[in-house]
Amino acid sequence: MKLPYSPPTPPPTATQSTKEIYARISARRSPRPLLPLDLALLHSPPVADGWNSFLGSIRSQTILSPALLELAVCRVAVLNGAGFEWKGHMPLARKAGVSGGVLGLVRDVDAGGFEGERDGGKEGGGKGGGEIGEVERAVLAYTDEMTRNVKVGEGVVERLRELLGGEREVVELTVAVAAYNCVSRFLVALDVGEMNEVKVEEWGVGD
Fold this sequence. Notes:
It contains nine helices and no strands. With about 210 residues, the chain is mostly helical. Helix 4 (about 65-80) runs parallel beside helix 7 (about 135-150) and helix 7 (about 135-150) crosses helix 9 (about 165-190). It is globular.
């Protein structure tokens, strides 16, 4: 990393507030140790605390399918060149049921056409697109537009809403994509996890 990491336990000079923040972050990560991301953020304990609460709610208090969430996070990682984000979330995507073939397509930064065609034509998705279902394509199309263009077309939003089933799901996906864009930009800016020099095509897909 471009800065030294914070210590994995509160330093001797830590205030009670900082000790409590370490404890809250450790509780969410348990039984794993604190991640390099946590140790980078803990240079500013209040920011680390808010980050932990915000991302924790996305990961544990939403109704969005874990497979769709991780699919979107992995796509954000690719588009922003965040290897450490991919390294952390690719196994979670596999655990949630996303195949290595689909992740191989997601890993292709130039893959496109996820919006597909809706009137009997061949569905889009580039190489191996046939492996990706209609809902997954809609999620990837939305993730690509949010991350690449910021503005999202009305048709993309409406298709996503129709396939996900309601406003809550769309809001949760939007927040997740926005949040993990934030995560990836922080990771890449400071090279947290030391993966900036690893080429995207070298990132594993769990096979």
